[in-house]
Design goal:
Blueprint: E1 2-12, H1 16-25, E2 32-37, E3 39-41, E4 44-46, E5 57-64, H2 66-83, E6 86-94
Antiparallel strand pairs: 1-5, 1-6, 2-5, 3-4
Helix pairs in contact: 1-2
Length: about 100
């Protein structure tokens, strides 16, 4: 198994394309995107079934080494500060197959 960082984002659907571009630009080899996630936080309830992207959230997970982690966090911080959202980082193990 390989030690990695698990980087998770919850962000407005409208800003997801910008975050995906950032993920690719820092050299991450991939990501997983789940659309229309539901929850509640400092921006209120998000039901995931709105008519526009204004009140929809997306969940993005990235598995990366420490060097990609720091580049991604540095790139994503201004986006999160400007539009809100959440970023969680944790240690994980990748089962190579």
């Amino acid at each position: 198994m390989e030690q990695i960082k698990r980087i998770e984002f919850v962000i407005d659907a409208a800003h997801t394309p910008e975050l995906v571009r950032m993920i690719k630009s820092v050299g991450a080899t991939g990501y997983t995107l789940i659309r229309d996630v539901q929850g509640s936080g400092d921006r209120g309830d998000r039901t995931g079934d709105e008519l526009s992207n204004v009140y929809r959230n997306c969940y993005i997970i990235v598995a990366a080494g420490a060097e990609i982690e720091q580049k991604l966090l540095d790139a994503a911080r201004p986006l999160l500060e400007r539009y809100g959202g959440m970023c969680l980082i944790s240690d994980a193990q990748w089962l190579k197959h």
